[in-house]
Write a sequence for this structure.
């Protein structure tokens, strides 16, 4: 049996994810001046609230250097506020600043429109099933990582 990369599920997941991310990133970059890692950090903080960089690494599945660079750029642009973490003196709590929240509130509708366009090829039932399947795949990968 010949291996076909295009039929390999991890490859399909990766290329699909990258295609959607790149499509949305063009919008973030051109309209809002954000790179994908910066938007991912803002998205996590916007939807989950204040976080440390360590938690952002876990939530975004990006490496420490990428998260650190994104956070620095967002702080420099006054899109994030940083406050001391009393529980751990080596880290800070990060949260969207008022300017960052305003930008987040502008981006989310654009992101949702793009999601709707991309997902228009699926029925409502297929969207529900895809979401459930992706959650199961992530759960499986997470459990394998902790073995």
């Amino acid at each position: 049996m010949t291996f076909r990369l295009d039929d390999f599920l991890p490859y399909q997941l990766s290329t699909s994810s990258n295609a959607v991310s790149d499509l949305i990133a063009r919008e973030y970059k051109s309209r809002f001046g954000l790179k994908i890692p910066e938007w991912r950090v803002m998205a996590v903080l916007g939807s989950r609230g204040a976080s440390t960089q360590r938690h952002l690494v876990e939530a975004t599945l990006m490496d420490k250097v990428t998260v650190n660079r994104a956070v620095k750029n967002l702080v420099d642009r006054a899109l994030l506020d940083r406050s001391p973490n009393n529980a751990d003196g080596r880290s800070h709590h990060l949260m969207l600043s008022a300017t960052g929240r305003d930008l987040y509130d502008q981006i989310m509708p654009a992101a949702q429109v793009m999601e709707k366009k991309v997902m228009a090829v699926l029925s409502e039932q297929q969207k529900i099933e895809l979401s459930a399947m992706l959650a199961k795949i992530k759960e499986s990968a997470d459990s394998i990582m902790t073995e």
About this structure: The first helix runs from residue 9 to 32. The mean pLDDT is 92. The radius of gyration is 17 Å.
